């Protein structure tokens, strides 16, 4: 009896964690996986039932919007992460230097991160609105940047940059502050200039911070719905529809939960695969 | 020990679970019945309902009505979520455009028996009652009509002196009233809600009187409709702002409110917005013009009203509230405030109806024996998703010149034809 109790204790201790993971992670994923194999459409209740791989066949072979949204999602993630990393690193390096008013500069740099997503889009929609927005100062009072397929992409990228750069700056600044000052001194003594010190001291020490920030941000940008949904609704003519936005349109707007679940599974698998691959390639957290 | 922990955990879960549930019984301790009412177009209408609820509660001291204003853009989603979670209101504002969807999920209680014994029986406009009954396969009255609407073109009287009576005149006016760089003759609804408006325009131009022909094929892609769509898409950026392609209702109204747009197609419901922006005297409205055939054709608007939900624990109190809302007084007050067409025949006879120019135009047009009425298939549960999520982005493609009008209409027609066939099969019709 005592041995049994002894054996049970560890399981008992981890059981709350297991229960929480089961309730909030395993169950939702399993239920989406289940619905992806079902016809479940609120507007066609008579056709509900087991679908097998029907939803996936439709997604892969018949749905142009799926492929288009996937392409746009890739373009969106790459553009955002690349630009956010470069600008975030630049900002972090600047506010890491000592100068008068650094405290104020740091708070200003980080402030956009504190603004809620919908508020951010609200501000930027006003900025882009024809006749009242900023474009009238550029002599283009009637240009609708969000309504023109040619300009909508840069317009939303800039908005998301405004919100996303501070995140990189915060994480990278924390990384920068963890680099011992002696390393720079030693490198300087060895004759390394600013550029070489950056490449051989700063970057290697920031590696984990960069990998973590790009991975987290990559997943978030992939799943970004609030900004695009409120700013463009995926339009005009679906040119800014990302995969998660398309899921929202199919599942929530068209009430086709079966198909929406299949699309969600596609996103889930893609993200899972990319994350594992990325962590492997970057050898995150390994001792060097 | 283990068991105790497990039970404790279960108990905690159970408590949290019930905590999220419905609280429709909250008023019971005080001897009052509390019913929840969801306004399907919360916002500008909220004060109207607050006043009506005040009156209702004064007349029925044992009932307390809890008002929830749901924004019109998310109302269908809210209902779907509430049905899935079993947390529906007692009474909800519902229109025929998503009625079939709700009855398809068995969410509503028919009102036929209540109405038969009610004081408002025989006082509701027959055509609206019929329209509601036609929307559902079993022909029952799941929605008690409160109001109906009609498409009109709003215009600024200082820009346009004479309302056009044909679409050709309309296109001419739109062009003449455009003064670059920033004054436009017209604004197109290119964002959310675009399809219903373009349907209303196309059928008023083509004069077709049926949405489906005898064989069940949609008439949407008729060459006459396509001819109109090409003309309308031709206005984009020429006589309308570039931003129109993403125009939803709030953006369109805001644009019209700047005073730089001469004409805007919407329905009677936006009257108060225009009055607020321009003042009563500057605003005019005309019914959608006639096409080359010369006959006035209008597409029937959804009927808006109230439904009692099946899950309600206080159905009698809920019905009492509905009955009050569609009574002469309630209905008259509501429609006078919103400027729409009352469903109560006694309210229709009230003096204020004749005093509002746009409403008189609408009632006259609807009652004119020469007016042809086309009824869209609101009974198709898929109608709403076909005309919104499925085709709105395609309409934007038409405006942007990325898709041919005929190709767009063929796609739309195919979807409607398929949905109609499927629905007929499913309902055994």
UniProtKB/TrEMBL annotation, chain B:
<dbReference type="Pfam" id="PF01547">
    <property type="entry name" value="SBP_bac_1"/>
</dbReference>
<dbReference type="InterPro" id="IPR050490">
    <property type="entry name" value="Bact_solute-bd_prot1"/>
</dbReference>
<protein>
    <submittedName>
        <fullName>Sugar ABC transporter substrate-binding protein</fullName>
    </submittedName>
</protein>
<keyword id="KW-0449">Lipoprotein</keyword>
<keyword id="KW-0564">Palmitate</keyword>
<keyword id="KW-0472">Membrane</keyword>
<keyword id="KW-0732">Signal</keyword>
<keyword id="KW-1003">Cell membrane</keyword>
<dbReference type="InterPro" id="IPR006059">
    <property type="entry name" value="SBP"/>
</dbReference>
<feature type="signal peptide">
    <location>
        <begin position="1"/>
        <end position="17"/>
    </location>
</feature>
